[in-house]
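Team,

Forwarding the record for the chain on the shared tracking sheet. I've put the sequence and predicted structure together so nobody has to dig through attachments.
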Amino acid sequence: MATDRRIVVDPDGPYQVYGDIPLVRKTQIVSEYGEPLTWQKQETIETDGDYELCRCGASAEMPFCDKSHRYADWDSKETADTGATAERQVIYAGGTKIVVKRDHSLCMESGFCGTRLTNIERLVAMTDDTQVRSLVMAMIERCPSGSYTYALEEGGPDIEPDLPQEIAVVTEITSDGPITGPLWVTGNIPIERADGQPLETRNRVMLCGCGKSTIKPLCDGTHRRERG
């Protein structure tokens, strides 16, 4: 595994990807009611060493940069908090077998945290039941942004899914059909802002690919409201 893998945000430009990081396509698997359930890998996108990924949303060669950022109407300003997520997390009280935590600032409303009938926040109080606890764990581990995490005891380390070092171009399934979502970075790949400040290195990170997020370089779900 390459040790120099990293992503650097170019000032007013693309994501510079170093270290031959695998690039793939993944699609949401949803229920008959449109509830996100899990992810399916569709294909590996051919790359050649280092490459550039679009972050303005205007490239004609998605997901790669074609220099459209030079002419597109977009704001490249980065406002994502560079502090540790542990400093922003809140703990959901209720269970004794699991400690559920959430960093609201990372949420991009992917929808894996609930169904048409319930959600993680409501289920926490019932997590002493093994089946409920297993469901909550699965929901949290499929949250692509890492907004939700869990530990097995208070003060214990977060339990993270074993994810590969890769970048996924995400397709989301909505009631209006499939849409291209953000870039899903997994496997603790370092990310550096355009001003040189590092973001906290995390196992699950969603990077904005439409150029419209209010917490760039992270995704906040704006791409769904901006489609078309």
